[in-house]
């Protein structure tokens, strides 16, 4: 469904994404693993059109999207849940969710559909229903994350880009959110690209993964293979931090 | 018809090329970071990993030969620290030193699944009893097939080589259904069954997974009749991974090369130029999934051609023609790779100088034998009879320790080996395959 070929993305002079190719098949959960500054968020931003790549090609269901504006990419079915949630704090939970469906409002029957989708989000995250009149700024971190995911789902994405959904959350909440993500893939057949610091948790729910290092992909493999890979273990699973070159 | 890994074995060309590109880029990034040999070569050519934007860009990179591996003996070309390696295998190098290959846990797992592909293609299932008659040791054949069979869930009988009567007894009593061997050993078994008056149909054997040396369709017919089995070919090189690079399906019309793990190219062995699809030339392999010992554009020295036409079995992976010859002077004797240069090393080492010699290879029944004929030189002549005998022993020992196989050695009179234009034909291969 998604196919990226040789993209290069720059922040000014900084070459942040170096010739990356990757793909996602329909219904897959794929995780991007990498240290801080490896280029994970930049890669997501390149996909969603926020920082378009300078060269290379991004095909979403065979359509080239690398030159499209972010809102057009959202309309095609790619939603991003940004790092640090970024919910609209002065607005209520319900308003936040409605904003997620903003692009579909103009379409005939869009409003009715949005109501249905909101029900779906409330079923996924029952706590949001309880809090629907509350201001988003008063929610806990975990609830804000749920809201951010819910808001992205309101745009009816076929591909969901998740940036560090577990960041700053208690382990219990992380488990819950990852469970919902796994369910989205299993039941709603949403394809998911998941960026996570918590590599072990991400690999547990992912089918495959890619390892990014200073803007380059250095490894592709099934989740099991990556869990077993010593480089991944050392760098991202917090195991044995000795020097690599010690022959 | 069963397919072990339909996601990869029946992948569309388009999806395959995307996957190959991703894995190629990741592999190049890893070797550039972790293997000094490759980093230096890329630097010398001013190639950066970012230059690899399509599969054809691979041809910008230099070829890797056995010499390169030799120069980095033993671990210089590993891409992971040694303590992440869980297995070491090796195969004959061109000189006295072997080529060393390392495997991580993932490498072993991926290898097992690749072998499971051609085993499944030959009809092996978890109900089978697999008798492995390869040598368990540094050689990759036995372990590769062993793991493949276990991955499928079949029962493995790890016999090892030799003792043909005992192999037949086990085959009869344990009711082995699958034979893993070299083609020549399969033929040897067939001859022995005939001698012993055992009807092959009285055995439970149904499949033969044969590899390790080139064989012909005539041999296949003889083996299939003599053992009453369905015999398929498989291909591998110890330094690349072992068996599991390619294997035949039931169509027996070429070996499917597992392109999701190995990127093949066909080159002109003389110029090194990449040849267009379908042409015959030397197979060059780039590994796409290996962690411990990745190889970039490795020259296999095997001559073949690739056929991208779809196969009736449903697999989409390219088919490689069965290997018929090599682009170097390597000999395969009883499934073991031997270079004439290794024999020379053994002979000259023992003589402590040069001596005219010739290597003669014969096949009686189905067994290969190697004899090294050395002409008496003044230096050898000066030795007492006793010492001459121990000299022969010494040569034999050196050959065995360098190549891993036994040879007979004999001394002949000076100038008695026939010469052509003053030159001795180094190798006399009298085998008819």
Fill in the CATH topology of the domain at 2-85 and 156-236 in chain A: Rossmann fold
Q: Note the beta-strand portion of chain A.
A: 25-35%
Class by SSE composition of chain B: alpha/beta
CATH superfamily of the domain at 2-85 and 156-236 in chain A: P-loop containing nucleotide triphosphate hydrolases
* Largest sheet entry of chain A: 6 strands, mixed
Mean pLDDT of chain B: 93
Silhouette of chain B = globular
- Named CATH topology of the largest domain in chain B: Rossmann fold
Distance between the termini of chain B: 31 Å
Distance between the first and last residues' Cα of chain A: 43 Å
Which regions of chain A have little confidence, pLDDT < 50, spanning 5+ residues?
Answer: 241-247
Instruction: Assign the CATH architecture of the largest domain in chain B.
Output: 3-Layer(aba) Sandwich
Radius of gyration of chain A: 18 Å
Q: How many distinct helices of chain B?
A: 12
Radius of gyration of chain B: 23 Å
CATH homologous superfamily title of the largest domain in chain B: ANL, N-terminal domain
Largest sheet of chain B: 9 strands, mixed
Oligomer: heterodimer
Fold and architecture overview:
- The complex is a heterodimer of chains A (247) and B (433).
- Chain A is of the alpha/beta class.
- Chain A has a domain at 2-85 and 156-236: Rossmann fold (3-Layer(aba) Sandwich), CATH 3.40.50.300.
- In chain A, 38% of the residues lie in helices and 25% in strands.
- Chain A has 10 helices and 10 strands.
- With 433 residues, chain B is an alpha/beta fold.
- Chain B has 2 domains: 1-328, ANL, N-terminal domain (Rossmann fold, 3-Layer(aba) Sandwich); 336-429, GMP Synthetase, Chain A, domain 3 (2-Layer Sandwich).
- Chain B has helices at 6-9, 13-34, 36-44, 66-71, 105-121, 140-152, 164-173, 183-196, 217-227, 340-351, 378-381, 385-403, and strands spanning 87-91, 99-103, 129-132, 155-158, 178-181, 207-211, 230-237, 242-248, 255-257, 262-267, 281-287, 298-304, 306-307, 319-320, 325-326, 331-333, 336-338, 357-364, 367-375, 408-412, 419-420, 423-424, 427-429.
- In chain B, the strands form 6 sheets. A 9-stranded mixed sheet of chain B has the order 4-3-5-6-7-8-9-14-13.
- The model of chain B has no long low-confidence stretch (mean pLDDT 93).
- The A-B interface holds A 3, 5-6, 8, 18-23, 210, 213, 216-221, 225, 228-231, 244-247 and B 15, 18-19, 21-23, 25-26, 29-30, 33-34, 49-50, 52-53, 75, 80-82, 84, 104-106, 109-110, 289, 291.
């Amino acid at each position: 469904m998604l196919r990226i070929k040789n993209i290069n993305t720059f922040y000014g002079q900084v070459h942040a994404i170096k010739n990356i190719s990757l793909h996602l098949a329909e219904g897959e959960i794929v995780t991007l693993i990498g240290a801080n500054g490896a280029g994970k968020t930049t890669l997501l931003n390149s996909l969603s059109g926020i920082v378009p790549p300078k060269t290379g090609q991004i095909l979403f269901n065979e359509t080239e999207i690398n030159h499209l504006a972010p809102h057009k990419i959202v309309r095609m079915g790619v939603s991003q849940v940004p790092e640090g949630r970024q919910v609209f704090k002065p607005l209520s939970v319900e308003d936040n969710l409605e904003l997620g469906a903003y692009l579909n409002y103009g379409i005939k029957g869009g409003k009715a559909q949005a109501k249905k989708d909101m029900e779906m989000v409330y079923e996924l995250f029952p706590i949001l229903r309880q809090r629907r009149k509350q201001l988003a700024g008063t929610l806990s971190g975990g609830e804000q994350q749920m809201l951010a995911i819910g808001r992205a789902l309101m745009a009816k994405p076929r591909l969901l880009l998740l940036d560090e959904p577990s960041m700053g959350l208690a382990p219990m909440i992380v488990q819950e959110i990852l469970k919902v993500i796994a369910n989205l893939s299993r039941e709603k057949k949403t394809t998911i690209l998941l960026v996570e610091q918590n590599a072990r948790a991400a690999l547990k729910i992912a089918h495959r993964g890619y390892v990014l290092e200073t803007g380059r992909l250095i490894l592709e493999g099934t989740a099991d293979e990556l869990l077993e890979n010593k480089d991944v273990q050392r760098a991202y699973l917090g195991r044995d931090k000795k020097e690599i070159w010690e022959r | 018809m069963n397919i072990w890994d339909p996601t990869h074995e029946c992948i569309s060309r388009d999806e395959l090329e995307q996957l190959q590109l991703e894995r190629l880029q990741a592999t190049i990034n890893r070797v550039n970071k972790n293997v000094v040999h490759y980093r230096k070569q890329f630097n010398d050519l001013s190639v950066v990993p970012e230059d690899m934007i399509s599969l054809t860009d691979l041809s910008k990179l230099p070829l890797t030969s056995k010499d390169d591996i030799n120069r980095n003996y033993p671990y210089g070309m590993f891409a992971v620290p040694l303590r992440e390696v869980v297995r070491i295998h090796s195969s004959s190098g061109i000189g006295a030193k072997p080529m060393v290959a390392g495997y991580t846990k993932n490498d072993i797992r991926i290898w097992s699944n690749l072998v499971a592909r051609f085993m499944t293609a030959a009809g092996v299932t978890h109900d089978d009893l697999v008798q492995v008659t390869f040598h368990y040791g540094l050689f990759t054949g036995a372990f590769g097939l062993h793991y493949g069979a276990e991955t499928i869930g079949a029962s493995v009988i790890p016999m090892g080589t030799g003792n043909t009567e005992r192999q037949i007894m086990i085959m009869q009593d344990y009711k082995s259904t699958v034979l893993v061997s070299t083609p020549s050993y399969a033929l040897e078994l067939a001859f022995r069954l005939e001698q012993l008056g055992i009807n092959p149909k009285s055995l439970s054997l149904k499949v033969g997974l044969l590899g390790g040396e080139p064989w012909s369709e005539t041999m296949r017919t003889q083996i299939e009749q003599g053992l009453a089995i369905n015999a398929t070919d498989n291909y591998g090189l110890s330094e690349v991974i072992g068996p599991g690079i390619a294997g035949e399906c039931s169509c027996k019309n070429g070996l499917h090369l597992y392109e999701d793990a190995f990127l093949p190219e066909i080159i002109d062995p003389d110029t090194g130029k990449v040849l267009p699809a379908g042409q015959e030339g030397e197979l060059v392999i780039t590994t796409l999934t290996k962690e411990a010992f990745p190889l970039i554009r490795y020259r296999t020295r095997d001559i073949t051609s690739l056929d991208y036409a779809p196969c009736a079995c449903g697999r989409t992976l390219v088919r490689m023609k069965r290997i018929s010859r090599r682009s170097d002077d390597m000999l395969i004797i009883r499934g073991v790779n031997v270079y004439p240069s290794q024999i020379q090393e053994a002979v000259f080492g023992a003589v402590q100088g040069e001596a005219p010699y010739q290597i003669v290879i014969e096949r009686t029944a189905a067994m290969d034998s190697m004899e090294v004929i050395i002409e008496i030189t003044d230096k050898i002549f000066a030795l007492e009879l006793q010492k001459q005998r121990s000299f022969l022993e010494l040569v034999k020992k050196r050959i065995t320790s360098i190549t891993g196989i036994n040879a007979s050695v004999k001394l002949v009179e000076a100038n008695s080996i026939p010469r052509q234009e003053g030159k001795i034909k180094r190798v006399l291969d009298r085998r008819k395959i």
